[in-house]
Amino acid sequence: MKKVKVAWFSTGIVALLGIFTIGTGQPPKVLPGERYPTGEAKANGYHVINRGTLRTLGLTIEEMDSLIYEVDELPGFEVLPNKHTGNHTCIWVDLGGNTFNFPLVSYITRDWYRQQLNPNFLDFLTIDLEVRESKGEALRVLRARTKGEYARDPWSEGSFSGVAIGDECYRYPDEEHIRVNRLSLDNLYSIHLNFVIGRVKVRVWLSVGMTGEESRRREKEVLQGLRKDYVEVGECEPADIYLLEALALGLEYRIRAHPKRLVSGQEPITVLVNNQPVAQGRTVSLAGVTVAPLSTLEPAQVALETKRTKMEWMVTARRNGQWVKVKAFSWEMETDKGKVKLERPVFPYKGELVVPLRQVAEALGISVQQKGQTIALLPK
Amino acid sequence: MKRKVACEKEGFKTFESKRPRQAGRCLPIAMLFLLLVTPSFLFPQPLYDYVNYVRLLGPSSYPLRWGEKEPVTDDMVPLPPGYEDGSPRVYPGCYKIGTSGFSVAYSFKANFDAFVTVTVLDSENKVLYQKVTPFPTPPTGVVTLYSFSLPGYIEELRVIVQWAQWQPAVVIPVFVVLDDPKPPMDPDWVSVLRISCQWARGESTVEGAARKLTEMTHQNTTYDTEALLFCYPPLPDQGEYFYLKLFLNRGMRGQCNEIADFLCCLMTSVGIRASVQRTNRRPFPKEAAFWTNKLLIRELREGELLTYRHHRWHYHQYVLFNCSPQSVYDGTVRFHPTVVHPYYPHQAPDYGYVVGWVRGGVPSDGDWARAETTYRRFLVSPYIPLSDPPQTYTILWEPTPEPSGFIPAVYASDQVTCQR
Asked: Is there a single domain that holds both residue B210 and residue B64?
């Protein structure tokens, strides 16, 4: 009798686990031209289309998904399902691939949000990425949306801080518009970067908004004359331009490291430790600065200790009494000798943090020698 | 009185006048409890195991399409509304407000007599009508919904037909609209009706519905100029293609083109005549056509970023109610409700929503200069914002196409999206 009860109990637990595991995780698999609904599916917050029946750009749904940050990869951020569709991610592969008449594009977009310290304010993050047939086509689209007739107010060339991002990059708004917004007591936290790397066009958009409840409260106060405007200068934190640019550089890394060679004319970099190649295909040059996952240093007697929570992702690397502490999306590292500004930010990729190789290696007492596309790490 | 007796003989019940018997009340609660605690995927109950057909008969529904694929002939919702054995889903219906004379034809896969319950719920789960046939009722037959008529306002109803109370119910969505759907929503899209009937719920006039739809469009769409766009305006400048299915799946994001086209679709889906117009002729000037006064465009996904500021636009796109420049509706912008216009001594009415304003700006609009809610006056700034001293510039304002705008060509396909 007891055994029967236990069996029922365990069946119940398994059933409950089944309920809770359904609805999380991965995009649904859709083959091109599936009968109903045609090459299309919705599940787990994903909306997926695959139209590559006649032509294809050669990227699968999973490969498109790997081009941007994973659902839980941004500390502090959570994915934001659309209130109408329930989707936080759209992956549309080979749009135009069921005809010969139109350009081909594969597209992925995902929305996140982050609660600010002030509970009435939220950060919103959107990343859109389009893979086109050629670099020329990607540049045409980028220029049309930043300079063409459909563009919003003027976009400026380059990134906010001057760091090189992609082959061609535009930012919005420029300093002039930030100043104008300040004068008119508006909220200025809607910042964009729009850039092209190879045949991929990327847009990263970070903005700060109020909760609907708070904005309605403020509107009421404005109407009653108790408040001059909805948002006053100094009420919000400054827009996190560094975060935006770190996100953009992390995306550039993913695109350059992608096995399907989305960027042409890029020579692979070889890293040698004790004359053995390591981190093959995962070492990339971002405008002259080589970045690689921290695990690249492990063969050089570096011990890694990861602390990953919902709000923070930090890794401490130790070697012979020297240590380095890096955080995801930070532009500096802590070392046993103090804080050091990094040439490129730290960002996550496939469960690891990617760092500027030379700066981190040297802080751990590893000498770095580079000859052409080969980098040798020489533990002292 | 005779009619009432006749109705009662046939088992007619309204929810207010007669309550179901005690057992009839407890059983659904018990069933609901069982359904809640039992994961449905463990015990699936497909309709085709129980139902041959359930059809909503009487007045014919407006033709509907799902809004999922092209060509339209492959996308049509079969008539009559209801469920047929083997169909992948239940077919909805769409009717004019106040329509009456409905009946339900049913055939259930059962070899016993029981009873049929027909219940009509509104979108807030309020019971508008209920009829339970007397026991025993054979599993095939027709139930006439005596004295039932659709409400006199926009609504999405559910007609629930159930054979015995432990069997799965067929739930037929019924959209109630003001009039025949107009182009481009002719045939009407189910995916659009689900939104328009929810947003304009309770409205019984075309003006009220247009106002509500405009406000809700502004509150629920996102102004986004850099994402993949869902409109393609070919030259000559007489219209544009609108890829509505992708626009909805992406979460209603786009420029003024997409938002105006979408508002036009919402309005026409509930029977309002509407068209779309641009402030300027293509190709648009290289330099901006005008600076705007301070206005709010909704640039965020969920929370609300209230950013009233000036914009520099090459053009803007809006909706003409009844295809008339005397009545502009704009779901993209909203004017500050308290900031008095710098050059005219009045405030933006309607909390700054552009609902039924006179377009203005061309002589054919008559006495537009005197109208308080002239759209152009609020939209366009005569000076370059924040210039000190005030600096004028050449405003370009050529509403196109004149006089009544264009009807966008709306598609459920996605090829041309890649072009812009």
From this structure: no
- Looking at the 3D structure of chain B, how many domains does it have? 2
Rounded to a whole number of angstroms, the distance from the CA of B27 to the nearest CA of chain A is 25
Distance of residue B370 Cα from the nearest chain A Cα, in angstroms: 26
Contact list in A for residue B195 (CB cut-off 8 A) is: 84
As a whole number, mean pLDDT of residues A103-108 equals 91
Verify that B154 and B231 share a domain, yes or no.
Answer: no
Find chain B residues with C-beta within 8 A of A125's C-beta.
none
Whether residues B240 and B134 fall in one domain: no
Cβ pair A80:B301 closer than 8 A: yes
CATH 3.40.50.360 given to domain A270-379: no
Out of B114, B146, B177, pick the residue that ends a domain. Answer: B177
Closest-CA distance, A251 to chain B, in angstroms, reads 17
Averaged over B151-167, what is the pLDDT?
92
| CB < 8 Å from A in window 174-203 of B | 195
**Nearest-CA residue of chain A relative to B282?**
A149
> Which residues from chain A sit within 8 angstroms of residue B287, using beta carbons?
none
What's B263's domain CATH number?
Answer: 3.10.620
**Whole-prediction pTM value?**
0.84
Domains of chain A, by residue range, sit at 2-257, 270-379
pLDDT in tens, B94-138: 999 999 999 999 999 988 889 999 999 999 999 999 999 998 999
Per-residue pLDDT of A234-292, as tens digits, reads 344 455 788 999 999 999 999 999 988 889 888 889 999 888 898 888 999 999 999 99
CB of B113 closer than 8 Å to CB of B138: yes
Q: Does B418 touch chain A (CB under 8 A)?
A: yes
Domain final position from B113, B146, B177: B177
Residues B322 and B394 in one domain: yes
Interchain CB distance below 8 Å, B305 and A208: yes
Q: What is the mean pLDDT of residues A129-144?
A: 92
Of B246, B311, B415, which has the smallest distance from its Cβ to A96's Cβ? B415
Q: Would you say residue B289 has pLDDT above 90?
A: no
The mean per-residue pLDDT over the stretch A208-224 comes to: 74
Mean pLDDT of A53-59: 89
Chains A, B: CB contacts under 8 A, how many? 159
Asked whether residue A34 carries a pLDDT value surpassing 70, the answer given is no
The half-sphere exposure of B316 on its side-chain side, counting CA atoms within 13 A, is 26
- Tell me the residue range of the domain where B78 lies: 2-177
Same domain, B229 and B300: yes
